[in-house]
Amino acid sequence: MKKFFVFVISIFLFSQLELLCVSKIIVEKGNAGQNGKYNKVNEWHFHDPKCDCDVHKLSCWEPGYINCEWEHRPSMMRLVEYAEDQIRKGLLNGTYEEIIDGIRHTVEWNATNIYNANITETVYDTN
Questions:
Q1: 37-to-13, 22, 30, 32 alpha-carbon distances in Å
Q2: Burial code of 107-122, b = ≥16 C-beta within 10 A, e = fewer?
Q3: How many CA atoms within 13 Å lie on the side-chain side of 15?
Q4: CA–CA distances in Å: residue 103 to residues 44, 51, 66, 96, 108
Q5: How far, in Å, CA of 20 to CA of 127, rounded?
Q6: Which residues of the chain have a pLDDT value below 50?
Q7: In degrees rounded to 5, what are phi and psi of residue 89?
Q8: Residue 4, SS3?
Q9: 97 Cβ partners below 8 Å, 6+ apart?
């Protein structure tokens, strides 16, 4: 029985090592104006030692006249647009996963509408 538990724990640890996060893309939108634009749009790109991954973050808030758009779009971003399309269709919360060019991408979103949403795409290295 002890060998069985060691085997199960080994499999679990090995499976966790296979999928390492290499990139997180975060989009936060809140309190847009009636025109769907924002007063403040900030973009950050940095390496987070906690997850040992690159983080790309776009935050847009307060009513204004600026579009919520990336100035330097992350090259690994593939599923944020998918989540935005789902929000436009009325699916305000969800998750989705897809293998793109052999790389696992996941996206999770929570929103009240397209102008008030939190979207996080995570890209994993399967090597």
A1: 45, 31, 10, 5
A2: bbbebeebbbbebbbb
A3: 6
A4: 23, 18, 33, 14, 17
A5: 9
A6: 3-17
A7: -80, -5
A8: helix
A9: 104, 105, 106, 107
Determine which helix (DSSP H) or strand (DSSP E) holds 43, and give its type and residue range: strand 38-48
Amino acid at 72: H
Structure tokens of 85? 């399309």
The DSSP output letter for 66 is B
Contact 72, 50 (CB under 8 A): no
Q: Which two tokens stand for residue 44?
A: 């950050």
Beta bridge partners of 23: 54, 123
Produce one character per residue of 25-52: b if its CB has 16 or more CB atoms within 10 Å, e if not: bbbbbbebeeeebbeebeeeeeeeeeee
Reported pTM: 0.82
Look at residue 4 in the predicted model and tell me its pLDDT: 42
Residue 85 has what DSSP assignment? H
Q: 88 is written with which tokens? A: 């436009």
d(CA 10, CA 67) in angstroms, rounded, equals 48
